[in-house]
Design a protein that fits this description.
Elements: H1 4-18, E1 23-28, E2 49-55, E3 58-63, E4 66-71, E5 76-81, E6 96-102, E7 107-112, E8 120-124, H2 131-134, H3 147-154, H4 161-166, H5 176-186, H6 199-220, H7 228-235, E9 254-257, E10 262-265, H8 267-270
Antiparallel strand pairs: 1-6, 2-3, 3-4, 4-8, 5-7, 6-7, 9-10
Helix pairs in contact: 1-6, 5-6
């Protein structure tokens, strides 16, 4: 799933490629992708892109007074095209979900692999109309998100740190992969409780959060959209690397599986050498 660093890199890429360009047409090609109907997508035709912004994991392309907002979900992606075939694509065929063509002939496709369709596109007058955007917590890369702001968010929380980091209403933009990475850098168990964190723990976790995300954004900076997935995978220390040696201590990276996800961690760095029980805790993934 694209998370904050990849979506931020896409924002920068699209800001360079879209702003000031005129939209020729926007074609929805999967029944499930469009979540709004008023205004219609045809309202974008002839409009000029004025900005591209990000709300957590949501991409926001502003065209005049309208906002084309996309959430790529688990299997969605954006593919830039310098040109398109003369024959329009057939709806419902393959992974293609939505196509946006500029007046110059270039543009982008939104695609989604797999059978579970969660990629979402909204056309709204205000991004706050989208429930997923309206409930977002603060952006962890914002200047105002300092150590004290982070501590205030955790105050009163009583759950596992992994789940807290992934909660979009608490902190926007962090998902399964980067929560694993942050906790490895912080040398903390994903099952550690938020209410057990001391002041030094909070400082350590905050520093790990900021450095991990900032470094990931820096690695992705300037990359074309097509290279971002590979960059994310290559930059992971523990996530997706079960069975590999920890890059810090050399111990074997272990995994805990859940019904539709998994986490990876280093027992030496994070849990005092003890393997975590492979429990299917649904509340961890909320």
């Amino acid at each position: 799933m694209p998370e904050l660093p990849e979506v931020e890199a896409l924002r920068v890429f699209l800001d360079d490629h879209l702003v000031g360009k005129e939209i020729a047409r926007v074609l929805p090609l999967a029944i499930s992708v469009l979540k709004t109907y008023d205004p219609p997508l045809s309202a974008l035709t002839g409009g000029t892109v004025t900005s591209v912004s990000r709300h957590g994991k949501f991409l926001d392309i502003q065209v005049g007074p309208l906002h084309l907002v996309t959430h790529l979900a688990r299997a969605g992606w954006l593919q830039w095209k310098d040109s398109f075939p003369a024959t329009p694509p057939r709806p419902g065929k393959g992974p293609l979900a939505l196509r946006t063509v500029l007046s110059g002939g270039d543009g982008f496709d939104l695609t989604e692999m797999g059978t579970t369709k969660r990629l979402a596109v909204h056309l709204v007058r205000d991004p706050a109309e989208i429930p997923g955007v309206a409930r977002l917590g603060p952006d962890p890369l914002a200047d105002s998100f300092d150590r004290d702001a982070f501590a205030a968010l955790l105050d009163g929380e009583r759950r596992q740190i992994k789940g807290a980091l992934r909660d979009q209403s608490l902190i926007a933009g962090i998902g399964n992969a980067y929560s694993d990475e942050i906790l490895h850098v912080a040398k903390m168990s994903p099952f550690k409780r938020t209410n057990s964190l001391g002041e030094d723990d909070i400082t350590q976790l905050y520093t790990a959060l900021r450095t991990t995300l900032e470094e990931a954004v820096a690695r992705s900076s300037g990359l074309a959209a097509g290279r971002l997935k590979a960059e994310k995978k290559s930059g992971m220390r523990v996530h997706g690397r079960a069975g590999a040696p920890c890059p810090v201590c050399g111990d074997t990276i272990l995994e805990v599986s859940f019904s539709d996800s998994s986490l990876q961690y280093c027992p030496t760095c994070q849990t005092g050498g003890k393997p975590l029980a492979d429990r299917r805790l649904s509340k961890l993934l909320k």
